[in-house]
Every structure is written in C-alpha cells, then in structure tokens.
C-alpha cells in the first residue's frame, strides 16, 4: 500500500504552478500500534517544519464510520494542512532534518492518501 510520495509524484505535483497555495488532504490508515509513532511525527511537524515553511494544520481528527464509501474505504484519521505554495511543500519534504523524522510517519502508516487540493475559483 502507498504511504510516501515518490520522486516522480513530486515532479508531477510541481508541474502545476509551483507558487500556487495548496491544502493537502491526508487520509491515514495506521499500522498496528502506529498511532503513537504518528503522533511523534506530528509533534515534530507542528513544532519545527510547518512553521519553517509557512504551513499550518487546518484540521486534524479521527475518522469515523464512512457514511458513503465502498467497503474498506474508511480512514483512521484525516489531516488538512495548508502550505503557502507547492514549492514550500516540496522544500519541506527535501529538508534533511524532515527526512530524519518522516521515518516515524512511514512506520506509523499501513496506507495513506496525500492529495493536493486547490481552491475553487468563484463564478
């Protein structure tokens, strides 16, 4: 199952306007005992890396039973993070210090969706 973006994923992500603000949707399915490891990662993210790159958690919460979804599509947690630009996200994931703590995220997750979203234009 997918957990981390690949180099080609990031290249495609940056092919859109690299200075466009982005809200990243994170859907998380924890490995057994992974919630604690993810919380360690999330603390480092909020204390160090999000401020460093001008990003902010907009929402983080536990997933409940899905009201509308195919079997197996419920998620353990949902996180929305706003980045000032796609390039800010890319610089963060390339940061050597970030790469040291992202191992906690990788170990914590059985499966993840990391989907960039863009604001709809009015009219």
Automatic annotation (TrEMBL):
Chain ranges of the DUF1330 domain: 35-110
InterPro entries: Dimeric_a/b-barrel (IPR011008), DUF1330 (IPR010753)
Organism: Micromonospora nigra
Protein name, per record: DUF1330 domain-containing protein
Pfam families, A to Z: DUF1330
Source organism phylogeny: Bacteria, Bacillati, Actinomycetota, Actinomycetes, Micromonosporales
